[in-house]
Design brief:
The protein is mainly beta and 91 residues long. The protein has a domain at 42-91. 0% of the residues lie in helices and 15% in strands. The protein contains no helices and 4 strands. It has strands at 56-60, 69-70, 73-74, 83-87. A hairpin with a 2-residue loop joins β2 (69-70) and β3 (73-74). The radius of gyration is 24 Å and the shape is elongated. The two termini are 42 Å apart. Residues 1-91 are annotated as: Disordered. InterPro entries: HSP_DnaJ_Cys-rich_dom_sf. This is Molecular chaperone DnaJ.
């Protein structure tokens, strides 16, 4: 058995696949790596990250107060949605 420099066992030193698994994917069914995922809303100028990014969440747009409107036009900060995606928590 091989050991690392720190003395731990090297789990990758010997790896045998069970018979019959050749060519079978180890990825979950239903999503192939090269295809795009579900459509997401485009980022607005006020978004700090795309929707669904870990460590982020939606909040009311501070510029329009959540109405999505500034005067007679869509709010340029949230693109008229009234919501923006921002980082939450953190250090």
């Amino acid at each position: 058995m091989l050991a690392s420099v720190a003395g731990e066992e090297d789990p990758g030193a010997s790896f045998d696949l069970p018979a019959g698994t050749e060519g079978r994917s180890d990825q979950a069914a239903g999503h192939t790596g090269g295809q795009p995922g579900p459509a997401r809303r485009p980022m607005s100028p006020g978004d700090q990250a795309p929707a669904g990014t870990p460590g982020t969440g939606e909040t009311v747009c501070p510029r329009c107060g959540g109405s999505g409107r500034l005067g007679a036009s869509d709010c340029p900060e949230c693109s008229g949605t009234g919501r923006i995606n921002v980082g939450i928590g953190g250090a």
